[in-house]
Inverse folding.
């Protein structure tokens, strides 16, 4: 019985020590994983070219850093935040939606709404509605009837 | 009464719209103005704080009385390699004469930057430009760029592209006279 307990103990120790070895092994990131993060980053040297499409030495070094951080277990968001802290938020393809930078998201929307408001205001002030000037419209109708009658009379006289 | 309230609301909305439009225009104008300015060429040097790779902090305001040579570089920058040994030689020859050389790593990764410093045996204070704040202060267009600051804090000369030992020493000698 004691032998069995010892054997079980050894098996358990071996099992857990193996699990630890597996857990502590670095994850080797694939090119796709690196490119998934790279496409959302821009290096300040090559403006308007995302990191995944840029072939300069600076971009290669940045991609290597992404691979390194991924293998250390960093999440994509953590990596992007790290790059923004290290090199400024201009390296991000999308500015943060919090704090002062939220203005970059809100301003276009505010401009669109303001533009719409101005358009609506302009058109509504140029086109008088019927209920605001009912008598004017009515007068126009009467005047037309009057003219029609007059024309008919004139035509009969001509006959 | 109702007509008055409506007019008042319309005026308020109009005022808000105009304020928004004017602030937008000012925002765009400032951006365009800053872009058109180009790199710093003269005037008072902007103050900044640089934390070097070995953990020391250099604040420009606290370096008053010294001639400062500020060099922007990067490990991925080929022309930077042309000037690396010249800059180190200047540091070795002038550090005892109230001249300080500050190297600022632009958009560089720490491992490669340290490797570059080791390769070129660079011993003058060097640190990364965290958040590219310093390079934005100097409005640099690329690397290498070098600035010479007089001992009273004014930019005397700036260089875009690699500098040579002879060019820099001519200016430093004049300033030290």
């Amino acid at each position: 019985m004691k032998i069995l307990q010892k054997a079980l103990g050894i098996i358990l120790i071996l099992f857990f020590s193996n699990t630890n070895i597996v857990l502590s092994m670095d994850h080797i990131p694939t090119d796709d994983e690196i490119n998934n993060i790279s496409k959302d980053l821009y290096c300040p040297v090559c403006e308007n070219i995302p990191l995944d499409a840029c072939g300069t030495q600076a971009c290669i070094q940045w991609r290597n850093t992404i691979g390194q951080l991924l293998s250390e277990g960093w999440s994509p968001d953590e990596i992007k935040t790290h790059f923004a802290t290290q090199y400024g938020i201009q390296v991000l393809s999308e500015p943060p939606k919090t704090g002062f930078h939220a203005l970059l998201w809100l301003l276009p929307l505010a401009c669109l709404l303001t533009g719409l408001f101005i358009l609506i205001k302009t058109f509504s002030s140029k086109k008088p509605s019927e209920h605001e000037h009912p008598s004017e419209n009515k007068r126009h109708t009467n005047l037309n009837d009057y003219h029609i009658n007059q024309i008919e009379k004139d035509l009969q006289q001509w006959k | 009464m109702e007509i008055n309230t409506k007019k008042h609301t319309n005026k308020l909305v109009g005022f808000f719209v105009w304020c928004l439009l004017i602030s937008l225009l000012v925002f765009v104008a400032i951006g365009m103005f800053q872009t058109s300015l180009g790199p710093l060429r003269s005037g008072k040097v902007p103050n900044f704080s640089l934390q070097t790779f070995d953990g020391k902090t250099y604040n420009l305001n606290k370096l008053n009385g010294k001639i400062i040579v500020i060099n922007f570089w990067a490990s991925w920058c080929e022309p930077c390699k042309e000037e690396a040994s010249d800059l180190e030689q200047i540091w070795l020859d002038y550090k005892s004469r109230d001249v300080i050389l500050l190297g600022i790593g632009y958009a560089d990764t720490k491992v490669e930057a340290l490797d570059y410093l080791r390769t070129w045996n660079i011993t003058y204070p060097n640190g990364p430009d965290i958040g590219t704040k310093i390079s934005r202060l100097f409005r640099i267009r690329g690397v290498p760029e070098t600035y010479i600051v007089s001992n009273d804090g004014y930019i005397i000369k700036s260089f875009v592209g690699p500098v040579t030992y002879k060019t820099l020493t001519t200016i430093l000698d004049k300033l030290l006279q």
